[in-house]
Batch of 2 targets.
Target 1
Amino acid sequence: MEENTLDLLSSLPDEILGRIISFLPSESALQTSFLSTRWASLWNTVLVQHGTTEAAVTAISEFLTHFDELNPLRQPRRLQYHFGKGSANILLATIAANNKLHMELSTGKQEFQKQFDWQLGLNHQSLTDQPSSSSFFVKTLFLKSVGFQSKEAVSSIVSNFQFLESLKIIECNGLQTLEIDSSPRLKSLTIFDCPQLKSLFIRSLKLRSFRYRGLLPRLLTENHFNLKDAMLDFRQGPCDNSFGSNDFDPSLLTIKNAEILTLCKWTFEFYRLKELWWIDNSSEGYNSDALISFLKLCPALEQLFVTVDTKSYSMPITTTYSKKVARHSKLEHLKVVKLVGFTNEEDELLLAVHLTKLAVKELLIIATADGICLRSLVKVHLYQPKLNQTHVKYTHNYKFVEENGDINELCVNHAHMGL
Amino acid sequence: MASSSTSVVVSNKEKENKNTKKVTLKSSDGESFEVDESVAMESQTIKHIIEDGHYSSLALSLSVKTTMASSSTSVVVSNKEKENKNTKKVTLKSSDGESFEVDESVAMESQTIKHIIEDGCANNEIPLPNVTSGILSRVIEYCKKHKEAAGESEPSVTSYTSNSTTNPLTEWDTEFVKVDQNTLFDLILAANYLDIKGLLDLTCKTVADMMKGKTPQEIRETFHIKNDYTPEEEAEVRKENQWAFE
């Protein structure tokens, strides 16, 4: 039997490959598009339609209804809908497994995007008498590059998605103010890279995840919600220089109970704070760590008054671990640390060693400057024999050693960065 | 003569299916003849008795003497034999010139062949220029097996979408597709050409199972797929589709 090195699979006709793919689990079916360009072409048939702005809702609705989730190659998963003046606006809608829909808008010419305000009402009864006949329930929606010419069409399409749970809005040039009014079904909201966004108003009862990247806008939240997962990447600074800290207060409330956070130090600096009264508790010896850390966020502080009250309440987690005097509290649960972007190797090593001493468990520390080359912290045993003694002494030093392993194996992906 | 022909038929039938229901006919002078129920039902009288349920598995009293009984039995038997001989057969000819004679009902598992026969275009042989003898013999094996299991009904409908642990053919099917890739793909193409849904689903699902759980690179290695993406193109495609995997 001769060795088979021919690619017989790819030479099968399209319908047969479609049938094979229909037996794959829907999440991984799309991965076949990475195999080769021939496989990618299977997934890239586009249905092209022209119509009016008003008819966009029906067009999308029908497109969604015809899609066959169990046999994803049977119908095109992409719709290119031309609408508006001179059919210049193009809406490209793409369906993916697990009820995901991606809608990207574009205009033929790269015009300056006029600034606009947008009120997005989700899960409301649609104003027209279009019944929502879509059998494909959109649960996750990505909106990219919505502009002032397309916002109306998008709004009416989106208001039909009664089962929407996750919304992601990215790269909307010209978007100045955004008001989102949603039902309790919406659990996750992400807004990335909308450069002109000055004001964001969220009316959403049960939001559990909020991710934002861009200049810090005016953030208003009507109802308080408790976030489990918050990414507040405001590293570009405030959107206008008259940044007032009271604009940020509502966000603070929402993240108090989060399990995953991304934060920028500057948003938490109390840069106007001159006088601070601090009440702390103490259990068998005062632990100053929390205070010291907080003081580092108060660059303008002039007067500090510390009161230690042994009866003062303390969060249960911090008091159960040790009866002995602990001058410096330990990080009981810390397992993995990744340091990115340190320009000075000494600083990096110092912080790493410091964290090692603070941790209780065996700590995995990985450092990288460019995200590609990884180094991990290892102990270096220096053997120091002493003459005329029966036992020898080891001192521990640390250094970073290059790792060749796959970054994903060494530590889990950051839930936010890399999005 | 009569007795000997009776015994011949019975033993053939025994070989074929041990589970066929049998009845015993007892002549008036006490001799017993065990025959297949279907054979005995050639007699309307016996048929009614059986259908009315007025008998035990042992005795059917017939007021016919032994020799008469045996002779009528032999007649009955040979009629059935003749009938079986009349099952329609068709001949399928592979691309490399080999001929296969199969029951028409088995051949009709293939929608393509079914249409040819129904259109009256099947005279002597049906030529299948797209299928080699090696593959054709396997396809026939599949059709035979599935037709048997389905019984006398329309072409068998085997569903491969559910976990068919209740399907007795599952094990047989699993063994059937344990072949090298060349053969597997030839079977796919043959099932497609001959329009045999069950076989097409079985073979396609087998390929899908070979892909499940593997990374794209692993799939490429398994099937010798050449990666014709440039690194930039590949990165672009991954970036474009990233949202679908979040």
Target 2
Amino acid sequence: ICFALLCHRTKLILILECQATKTCRKYVDLATNTDNANVKVLIDPKQFSRNEANGIIIIDKLQPRDFHILFVPRRSLLCEQRLKEKGVLNSFTNIDEYILDLIPYDGDLLSMESESSFRECYLENDQTSLYHAAKGLMTLQALYGTIPQIFGKGECARHVANMMLRMKREFAGSQTQILPVFDTLLLLDRNVDLLTPLATQLTYEGLIDEIFGITNGYVKLPPEKFAQKKQGEGGKELPTEPKKLQLNSAEELYAEIRDKNFNAVGAALSKKAKIISAAFEERHNAKTVGEIKQFVSQLPHMQAARSSLANHTSIAELIKDITTSEDFFDSLTVEQEFMTGVDTDKVSTYIEDCIAQKDPLIKILRLVCMQSVCNNGLKQKVLDYYKKEILQTYGYKHILTLKNLERVGLLKPQSTMRNNYPTIRKTLKLWMEDANEQNPNDISYVYSGYAPLSVRLTQVLARPGWRSIEEVLKMLPGPHFEERQQVPTGLHKKRQPGENRTILVFFLGGVTYAEIAALRFLSNMEDSGTEYIIAATKLINGTSWIKSLMDSPEENLP
Amino acid sequence: MSLKPLDVHFKVHLDLKKIELYEMGWNLKDGLRECLVAAAPYGGPISLLKGHNRRSPSARPQLEIYSSSGLPLASFPWKSGVVKQLGWTVSDDLLCVQEDGTVLVYDLLGGFKRHFSMGNEVSQSQVLETKIFHSPYGTGVAILTGALRFTLATNIDDIKLRRLPEVPGLQGAPSCWAVLTQDRQSKVLVANGSHLFILDNTACTPVTPPGLSPQASSIVHMCVSFSYKYLALLTDSGHVWMGTSNLKEKLSEVDTKIKTPPKQMAWCRRPKSQQPSAVVMWDGLLIVVGECKETIQYHLDDDSILVPELDGVRIISGTHHELLQEVPGACEEIFKIASMAPGALLLEAHKEYEKESQKADEYLREIKEQSLLSEAVRQCVEAAGHEHEPETQKTLLRAASFGKCFLSNFPPEQFVSMCRDLRVLNAVRDYTVGIPLTHTQFKQMTVQVLIDRLVYRKLYPLAIEICRYLKTPEYQGVSRVLKHWACYKVQQKEESDEVIAKAVSVKLADAAGIFYSEIATKAYESGRTELAIKLLEFEPRSGEQVPLLLKMKKSPLALSKAIESGDTDLVYTVVMYLKNELNRGDFFMMLRNQPVALSLYKQFCKHQEQDTLKDLFNQDDDHEELGNLYVKASYKEQRLEARIALLQSAVDEYYKAKNEFSAKTTEDEMRLLRFQRKLEEEKGELLVGFSLHDTMTTLLSVGLHKHAEQLYKDFRVPDKRFWWLKLKSLAEKEDWEELEKFGKSKKSPIGYLPFVEVCIKHHNKYEAKKYVSKVTPEQKVKAHLAVGDMEGAAEAAIERRNESEISTVLSRCSATTDHLLMERLNRAKATAVKK
């Protein structure tokens, strides 16, 4: 959930992040500093039910004001119960909910921004987020029509589909008569494709996320590169605040380059630079007043384009510093070796060296997990060795994290079953030797060779269909299924020749920017005939994903 | 034949018509005499309380409820207190206001629903007079108490009592009063003699009606129109003053020439009508007053009551039920003698057409020449709507249909919906149903409400027929009726659970959007738990099943339903409920059978009740998790002893779980902790809590090499890592001598390139160079490059004849200084490529 503070004159809506104490203090300050304010508290019921104590007591002390409570994303009986037990339920003038399931993130992207969804579903067996996902899909269908076809792969996908069908029965008789916008819904469990998020994303947007982290559509960048060079001042003062930039398709240039492989971004930027400076040169050709007027009217747009270009050139430089480093190269080489199945059954010297040099733990975990996934489990000896190395180097407390990784299947000892990853790789063509980064002809460009499994499954579903890969589907965890939903007669979509099919792909457990890029690439392919809309419980990358699975006992210290 | 209109006389008075609705089906000995009567608007039911003034227990008053046609709906002896007033709510419930301010609510079949009080003040000073009124907020009750104060509740379903301010100078009961709804507020208009006051929440304001004739010394009666827009006042001089209810405008004043106080007075006015008209009733006499001086008088044979309606007044007597209303415009136009209105001509044309007379054509031409045919059709359709006689309706509709044939592009909706509406209206006006709605009332009331009213009367088949006929969406129409039917059905005690459940499921099977939980709730409320459970099985929304199941103490079922719904919040709710209801053992047993609930509860416990979590794991013999729990707990311990004790417990559990790795690792952890503490005590270095790696690094950095070595051996740290660690620590300390010694101690398991690189990292090229020679041939080029020895690098690369290495070196050469070298390299590259 986004932690924003919305002020509207005297009305305050505060989104209370229930890491209770810290934010509560902030909230109390606000409440006391604003006279005669209505204080609204938006509460994430899940967080709330867990660490509620501080929040409530403080609210109680501030009796004389008007308090409203808004539950996000849904009203929770449990929370109300606890409020009642604390005896403060009656202090609220209003108790309501702010239903927030799917948040539109971009023109083709919806996210639930449910941070811990993967952890809850696969580790803690808590399917709350799936219920919200199903509810969100019902809302979507109420707005955009019943989706006639549902495909899915994985346990969670099955669960969500079941809930949707059930909810549909519950709403029977009250359907809205809307022409379906989506032809198909594809539900994919993240654990069907554990490999993709572990790999380093190589698209522009993916790398920004990997290196700086994109949160709620914003990225914070080191300020040095963005210092305003004003003439005369000589750039004495360097800004110390990180530069905050919003990233979405509203920015023309960004929309153009974000899904490109990073190696193709430089060329795109210089091409753009030429176009922009050419546009500015136009002014010399403007002779008549009319022409000048026209030029001036375009100026704001051109200036915006120029500043956008400057920003992205700076970002690209920052990224380039990292991607050209030896460390990055070595690590990428190892990743690619694993993905192509080279020496996945032995202890990797590179990982060993990284541990010895105490590189960041998450980097190590990403690599070890990747090796395990690509080898369908590690030999017991190898696994124990890695574990021991990690525990000795980073501390024994990480034993719980390792256990979590084992439980979700990211780490596992090799079973007697043979390694089926090579078969999957070959059948689905997960590795493309000659990935064209500049002018891609296949989704594998997003990882410079590796085609994300999840997107490959989506691609095959659209054409020629899953029946052709029945064998591989059986090797992947969880059931795969197809359901049909009755569409009221008269609302059957009659597709014009040449009109695209629309598939909504829902990633349960999170999606990476590279996967999104791959799906957009498929949408834009000339002969694809399919348009993809993407939804996910959360936008993730390998680092944030692994982090969500970690257990560090110290953090829970009172 | 020429069709000239007769000279229309000056319109003397408004045109009224009196329609006989029913001959009453009841058999009342004394008519309505000495009865407390209340009839609901919109053709609603009539209630009678006979002998309500009798107080002796031997002769209890009898409460009777009839339909508008006089068919009995209910009858029972009144056993409660003295009733001051009867009245109906908007949802056809009967309100009986007692002397003590208690209001009893009955449904229209005489079933007691509930009661409420109008407050202490009312019960103490007793009820003097009561008025029951309707507003957009529902049905309200206004009471004048014995203390001459008004108490008001605007909506009896959400009672908020309001005591209105005192009326100045009020000595006894006011001469008359009425309730108004103005500015979204209910107010009381009170007349005390010739003074008029408006009471609202805060104030009592004196008001004067504009132009009230001065000879009046008292206002004896008043009435407010159905819409609250108009007010009529009757003075002791016999004058009726009519005006707007905000008292800003006078519409007319008429002298009735009767000075006795009337029995009742009511507005009789169509919506949008230009003329005011009110009906005043005395014993045996009814006078209609309007705009002009003259009045219309009717003789009444029998005691009657007036029921004001939206578009007229109903007059109910002991034997008859009539509707008095202003003649609707369309009807007047058509049926006025020798009318030349287009509608009248069309009706005539159609008559001729039926007679197969060519005059039909003449009439038609007459209309068409004035291009009024569509107007004619519209008039006929509208008039049909106002007619009560099916034959007349048909005649008019046929004429309209006939006229339509000569029009192109005439929208058919009005005609079609009128036909449908009339069919429905005729059905409900039928004597056996007895709801004499006019078309205007029907439109105001909506089909939804009409269906509700039929349902209250348990006329389910008719209601369903109407829904189907009007094609009402299922969940608003048929499904709703069926639900009501089912709710009624489950209360029939004589039938067995199986029979009822089956009957309900069969009837409701195909209906969409049925909420079985409501039906089940009804069944449960009438004490039929088993039936309720059976019915809940049909409920598609599991979420709705749960609260009722809990209420019925069917917790296991509630739990599995909650899980089925997928709504985890619901599961939590049930789990928390169970936790309080059951003893711990049973609670755990129940959770054990429901893994989903169990894991949710575990999550809850993890954050709220760690001890319970331990019990849960113990119960399941989940030693692995118990171990984890101890490990976690150990990090919350500040004291080392306690920490080690917890870790020991973890070790035990891990062994029980046969997880050797975890057990061994945890033992290692304990060993490390002990070692760290010992060293802390001996050497004063802060170590506890460090990882093994960090401990060794710290030891090396402070020169405790022996201890580091000991750890290295004890914990069987791989050589490679130890070498890396030592290399980095020594370089960090810039202890180059020791480093050199270390490098020579034995053959490095990590090779010597790291030595070179680490030295360079610490800006010591001199030291770095020492190790270059020791680097393996494969890494030589890299090593040379690292120390900046281009020549060496080139030498090594050429020697190895490795194209990519040569290229690497080349890329590092600068064209100005390494000119010769580059030439050599390029040559070597060429040969390497050839090979």
